[in-house]
Prior knowledge:
Layout: H1 7-12, E1 20-25, E2 32-38, E3 45-50, H2 58-75, E4 94-96, E5 99-105, E6 110-111, H3 119-135, H4 154-167, H5 170-175, H6 177-185, H7 188-197, E7 205-207, E8 216-219, E9 225-228, E10 235-237, H8 240-250, H9 268-282, H10 288-292, H11 294-314, H12 327-344, H13 346-357
Antiparallel strand pairs: 1-2, 2-3, 3-5, 4-5, 6-8, 7-10, 8-9
Helix pairs in contact: 3-8, 3-9, 4-11, 8-9, 8-11, 9-13, 11-12
Amino acid sequence: xxxxxxxxxxxxxxxxxxxxxxxxxxxxxxxxxxxxxxxxxxxxxxxxxxxxxxxxxxxxxxxxxxxxxxxxxxxxxxxxxxxxxxxxxxxxxxxxxxxxxxxxxxxxxxxxxxxxxxxxxxxxxxxxxxxxxxxxxxxxxxxxxxxxxxxxxxxxxxxxxxxxxxxxxxxxxxxxxxxxxxxxxxxxxxxxxxxxxxxxxxxxxxxxxxxxxxxxxxxxxxxxxxxxxxxxxxxxxxxxxxxxxxxxxxxxxxxxxxxxxxxxxxxxxxxxxxxxxxxxxxxxxxxxxxxxxxxxxxxxxxxxxxxxxxxxxxxxxxxxxxxxxxxxxxxxxxxxxxxxxxxxxxxxxxxxxxxxxx
Length: 358
Ligand code: GN1
Ligand code: MG
């Protein structure tokens, strides 16, 4: 397939179409991603177009990554933090024809997975995300600017849902009635969060905010975690964001796009591996309040994602790309099923957490 990439973007990094091989890669819903293989180098690069309708302030991302990279370089020089490659003009971003681009080094001998097929992968991934927050425990999170304001703010997501509900056409509301009821009924998750959010020992930390499995690089041979990638949403947040999104995306053998809800079940052994991996890094820094919220993290993130998909369906699918009209509604159904599976297994899951907190 011919890849239609603006030559000016390559030029910003000192390349031309003639001296580079280009492949489009990645499965994310938000940014376009390419793999660049310069013919004269052993190294490869990842080039990404930043979706500015989602990331309205790309400079914030560049500043955040620079601040963290500088801190890591002086504090943990052996830690592999994938910071952007500078343009020939020395900038962290290339601005070409009203679009922002950034380039990252490709890490050789690693793979990124789209689906998890064994527990070790869950453990390794969770450990990598935990390690990032642990190493940045002393870094002042307030130095970072939110790259998407209110990104994991459940109160805001609930507000956006109620707004969508008040403006959605009757037909869409009719189609999604059971999910609207689910969303309203589960508002206790938001209320529960609010009862904790002002506690002083529930701090803002540096969180990754997109902990799906494809955002971790694993060693090709040993399958050990090497580093985390996709750092656009690194910003201050609560620890529940990262662990919760891992529960959302690692526990079920099928993705949020699965429409056969009988398949939406949670795998206890993957839960155990995820919690073990995350806590192996974070146990020593989590506060007593945070430790109470380990299982809640999954509820918070799954509920939020269900709300986001349902909201987008009611808004006429303006945010998440879809393959068919009711896909966001199906995704919301999937997430509500996952949420009820988590609740149905609560006792066993809490036992696993307790074992891993001692
Ligand atoms: C988006 O593009 P991707 O797949 O990395 C979204 C996440 C959602 C996810 C659901 C910036 O992530 O928050 O959890 O879709 N990212 C943004 O698939 O909205
Ligand atoms: Mg992402």
